[in-house]
Amino acid sequence: MRARQLEVFIAVMRAGTVTAAARMLNISQPALSQILLHTEDELGFTLFERVKGRLRPTPEALEIFADAERLSAGLEGLRRKTTDLRLGRTGLVRVAASPPPAMAILPRAFTRFRAQHPNILLRSHMAPIAAIIDMLRAGDASVGVAMDDRLPPDIEAEVIGSVGFSCLLPGGHVLAGKTELTLADLVGEELISYRGNTRPADELAHAARAHGVALSPLLEIDVSISAVGFVQAGLGIALVDALLPWHQFAGLAVRPLAAGPKFPIALLTSRTRALSRADEMMRDEIRAACSAVLGEDATRA
Question: Where is the HTH lysR-type domain (predicted)?
Fold first, then answer.
């Protein structure tokens, strides 16, 4: 499967129709259909069944889709790298981070790095941990920062700190009268928190069992920053990481979760890719920034 065929296949898988896929790729529908037919002919099996105007992936298409996405990500990374080399951007540091460290730690790290190395281009990606891992493997990011250290063996995770949880309450909530909250205080409240099978959700569930309480969020979120609007709208109390500067948001009362669990802040790199000198300097700045941010949080608490 050639690069253009790969691009068309992924677009159709994601869009579900030839019209939408052609619009995504900015090509005509006949051209896309022709590429798709040639691809199926070369592969020797059908990728899509035509059902009521939509394209339904065959079992064979579903089988190869994940591999196709990984190949596409690698090709896109290669395109960006060759562009950087063509434009002379050999001094380039790419950092991928999940939202809390991207918002709380990277601004400080980038500020110090820029002051010392003003001519090195910085590229920041905010992404979930699964995407960060893919970017590290593809070389589209050299350094990652995430709030989990349970990673595949080809990804090295250096724990550079740990963080607990904060409770975000709507303005005027009765529990805002307390200086800190416990898991027991949250029993019976309408909770907003992380979806299952994530590191924070696992840590909270384990802590709840240890304290003999049952917590069941009525609204699940993927990233903590998304809880702000829900709390401001009065939909419940959010139980989220304590890393983000929650006090900057209006309409919230922020209280620490006392005796709650902690989860790690990890610096991620690929074991199969060497870091450049610039990458190593950025890694040092991220370590220092994390220590400073956590120290400020401890002082404020």
Answer: 1-58
Overall pTM > 0.85: no
Domain hosting residue 45, numbered range:
3-86
Are 275 and 146 within one domain? yes
Quick count: other Cβ atoms within 10 Å of Cβ 32?
21
Distance CA 224, CA 102 (A): 12
121 plus 97 within the same structural domain? yes
Q: 62-101: per-residue pLDDT in tens?
A: 999 989 988 888 888 778 777 755 654 557 899 999 999 9
Check residue 17 and give its pLDDT: 87
Residues 6+ apart with CB under 8 A from 71: 6
252: domain CATH number is 3.40.190.10
Determine phi and psi for 74, rounding to 5 degrees.
-65, -40
Query: 297 near 166, Cβ under 8 Å?
Result: no
Question: Residues 152, 179: one domain?
Answer: no
Chain-centroid distance of CA 225 in Å reads 12
Q: What is the pLDDT of residue 88?
A: 43
Question: What is residue 27's DSSP assignment?
Answer: S
